[in-house]
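TL;DR need structure tokens for one chain.
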Amino acid sequence: MTGQGDIFVIIESRPFDTTPPSDVRHVQITAARAAEERPRPDEIDEVIRRVPAEGVRTLRIHYSSRLTRLPPIDRFKNLKVLEIQNRTIKDLGPLFALGHLESLTLTSVKADRLPALQGRRYNYVRLIRGNIVQLDLTARNVFCQECSHLVSFGGAEISFADVQSCKNVDLSTFAPVRGLIDLRIVGTGPVVTSFDFAVGCRDLKNLTITTLRSTTDFSALGRAPALRSAFLLVKRSMLARVAGDCPHLVISNGDVCFRGCQQMTHFDFERERAAILGV
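>> reply
TL;DR here they are.
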């Protein structure tokens, strides 16, 4: 496949079949359909060096790719979006050179930490599966999905955190996260058995939890200092009880909404929650 318009696709087993257009803005590296064809990393490097680097804004390494190292992407100084979807790249050190990177997606990362991402502020970081144990980076939005090894967010600075099916996360590590105003814990875990962790989250304004149990202790929820809205996947009777104990919160389970003992409409709940978060 050859480059067309501002999109340039490199077939990793036949990289010299491609000719980069002069106005390329988006680069994708992908595997050939034939499984027996192997990537040619040195030739990919050469093709990447021919790409007019100044205008490149997006780079995607497709999940089908079998590359084991990154090409010389450090020459893409204006790169804004990077998606590494394959499972075989281990060394992420070259990412540190990408000073204008705003959005980063990493799938099945082999490393247990991401030191190459420290010292930068990102708008969006998404992690899917992989071996990451501690996530200590700076980003406005973080989405962690099925990261079974992830334990700690200690040392991070995150405004909006979405944790989906990351069963081993230690909830107490959210307390030292700087600037955390919105936290979603959904899917299969971690299971929330107590809200003691929320008391230490000094900036937390909104909380969404669907991983509750019938034995969950809600007593600490009202002591979270900045919390003003919550979505809790519990029965109506339990939600009404929690709402009565926390009259300063707007609270919902998706079926019914309360402010204190007073029921409110879904429209009013969503409007107020958006105002609380400033979105």
